[in-house]
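Sync notes, pocket subgroup
Present: LS, DG
LS reminded everyone that the earlier model was apo-only. Rerun requested with FE2/S2 (inorganic) cluster included. Inputs:
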Amino acid sequence: MNLVEILYKEDLTREEIVFLLSLNSKEEVLKLYRRADEVRKEYCGDEVHLRGIIEFSNYCEQDCLYCGLRISNDALPRYRMTREEILRTVDYIVKADIKTIVLQSGEDFFFTTEFITNVIIRIKEKYDVAITLSLGERGFEEYSEWRNTGADRYLLKHETANKRLYSAIHNRQNLNERIKHLKFLKSIGFQTGSGDIIGLPGQTIEDIADDILLCKNLINDMASFSPFIPSYDTPFRKVSKADLELTLKTMAVARIVLKDAHIPSTTALGSLVESGREKGLEVGANVIMPNYTPLPYRKDYKIYEGKICVTDDPLACADCLRLMIEGLGRRVDEGKGNSLKPLTKN
Ligand code: SAM
Ligand code: SF4
Ligand code: FES
């Protein structure tokens, strides 16, 4: 089978995915990107969805080897936002006409079930917005309570579908458990998001193919494929950052395989290279997440080195991104940007 036939197949095998991820010639890679952009247009349209993210705590009880927020990193000044600060930041996001609020933190059990429930209630009473939680692995009862309270989405990346690699980079967690959480979240009606990190040490192209297939099997409403960028204060300080082309190829193949899943052009991609997020939007992505974490805190949500926008006025990012999106001939979506999967479509 030739490249064009594979690009237009309805379902790709693992071998075909590996084949696409391994493309080398400039011309063939361009064909892949063009097909991904076509699939994005067909299944997702020209709208780009904005999700306003609040990184409300950089405390974390986990020790992921790749992440600057890991508990063993004593060099990081830690912060927790108060409920009032979180709610004030939500006001700013809504004023910017963004209708999804992403509440993200390290795995920080200082924030109890009740605290998060109360924040969800306060947001939902005031505003007609979608809420995405990204708090790491929490208890199944907590998930249910937050879902019943009105939280809409949960983002929990599987990071790598290779069990051995997963256990090597997580001191305390395993892949089976993570998948159990993702399935449970889906079963109680959350729109779920998962995905990987590209460029982990020891990761193969076959692993990345499995990452894409795992997102497909989990019927993820969202899937994020972001490049690894080292943090100086982790055991991975000397690991090279991810290859740009491999990251873009992964996003493109993911779009072709996952069709209507929301795929972000990540902040990590924008931090990897200038105009990284524009490039991502051109190879299949349809989501961008402007950072609304207030200025005194955002520089300390230091997952990796060189994260963009850490000194910018938080309120400037949304306008900057709108200009970028329009510059690409795309439109900012005015709605909540719910899942495009048939069961959860709004
Ligand atoms: N603690 C929650 C969790 O792990 O799901 C949410 C916050 S965590 C910082 C969000 C994501 O950051 C992780 O899912 C991981 O993929 C990504 N991340 C962590 N370290 C990274 C690095 N060095 N390069 C790129 N992405 C990284
Ligand atoms: Fe904590 Fe998430 Fe970073 Fe792991 S990736 S150390 S869980 S913040
Ligand atoms: Fe933050 Fe451009 S997105 S200033």
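DG: The first strand starts at residue 47 and ends at 50.
LS: Residues 26-44 form the longest helix (19 residues).
Action: DG to write up.
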